[in-house]
Write a structure and sequence with these properties.
The chain is α+β, with helices and mostly antiparallel strands and 269 residues long. The chain has 9 helices and 6 strands, in the order βααββααβααααββα. Bound molecules: adenosine-5'-triphosphate (2 copies) and magnesium ion (MG) (4 copies).
């Protein structure tokens, strides 16, 4: 306030670097689990995809979207999540460090807070950490290409991991042998190995594994039963009440093609 006296030490604030994100650009924060290769091993993650871990990641991302301001879409796969702030957000005067640290710390505390809801009998053995970065995209096209890049990465890794773990778990190859077997193979080769050796049609693998998870805001009807107080003759009776709330809803759809953006034009408004 105006009455607050400034101390002679106040000048040190001028050493803070300006990290304002360029006006009107999309601000993306991506976080990624620190050394989750090890974390997955220590917590007995199912290979290639532990669905508990993926659902926990998404719960944390929903918490980030609901607790913080101005996030319009998020995309997650493996141990990473990306959050996109609306172009004209002025949250914390667009300071990159504020965006990044609030996202990552909210996510990390949620990961620990909600762990038991997803991992029930698997104790959390040590506190996980996440790194974060901020990237600013100047146009709708660069933002869409950014998200396409992450989904393409999900596809490439998941196809590889699906074949790799089939070779290890079903054919008894060692990890080194499986890696050598896959050296230099193309997408078509991997699909062929899955189909001919394991009778797996890759396109029938779960969408969450193949596409990752998109979180967007959608109106959801919440049905709940409410205790009715008045009038007296209805005392103790229960009433069904429906109210509409806007929630961060998970989808496992393609975001590389135009269809998704045509269906949800409000995201890029
Ligand atoms: P860094 O600290 O550099 O990110 P990292 O070990 O986390 O190191 P990543 O490239 O981020 O390396 O890869 C994450 C790893 O975590 C994957 O390779 C995989 O082994 C594991 N992992 C993450 N999520 C899951 C999951 N849902 N199911 C199975 N394994 C997972
Ligand atoms: P912001 O998100 O802007 O940081 P804030 O409410 O955290 O908002 P701060 O200026 O960081 O504001 O002040 C932290 C506040 O937290 C203090 O004003 C005080 O009310 C409370 N607080 C923090 N630590 C303690 C503590 N150990 N004992 C009592 N109150 C505390
Ligand atoms: Mg990495
Ligand atoms: Mg990682
Ligand atoms: Mg990763
Ligand atoms: Mg504070």
């Amino acid at each position: 306030g105006a009455a607050m006296a400034k101390s002679k030490f106040e000048y040190v604030r001028d050493f803070e670097a300006d990290d304002t994100c360029l006006a009107h650009c999309w601000v993306v924060v991506r976080l990624d689990g620190r050394n989750f290769h090890r974390f997955a091993e220590k917590h007995n993650f199912t290979k290639p995809n532990d669905s508990r871990a993926l659902h926990l990641m998404t719960k944390c991302a929903q918490t980030v979207m609901e607790e913080l301001e101005d996030i319009v879409i998020a995309y997650g796969q493996s141990d990473e999540y990306s959050f996109v702030f609306k172009r004209k957000s002025n949250w914390f005067k667009r300071r990159a460090s504020k965006f990044m640290t609030h996202v990552v710390s909210q996510f990390a505390s949620s990961y620990v807070f909600y762990w038991r809801d997803y991992f029930e009998d698997q104790p959390l053995r040590y506190p996980p950490g996440f790194d974060g970065r901020v990237v600013v995209y100047p146009s709708n096209q660069t933002l869409k290409d950014y998200l396409s890049w992450r989904q393409a990465d999900c596809h490439i890794n998941n196809l590889y991991n699906t074949v790799f773990w089939a070779l290890v778990q079903q054919s008894g190859l060692t990890p080194i042998q499986a890696q050598e077997r896959l050296q230099g193979t193309l997408t078509a080769d991997k699909n062929e190995i899955l189909f001919s050796e394991f009778n797996i049609n890759y396109n029938n693998e779960p969408l969450m594994y193949r596409k990752g998870t998109v979180l967007i805001w959608q109106k959801v009807d919440e049905v709940m039963t409410k205790e009715v107080r008045l009038p007296a003759e209805m005392e103790g009776k229960k009433m069904v009440v429906t109210r509409t709330r806007t929630k961060a809803v998970p989808l496992h759809c393609d975001i590389i093609g135009d269809a998704f953006w045509k269906e949800h034009p409000e995201i890029l408004d």
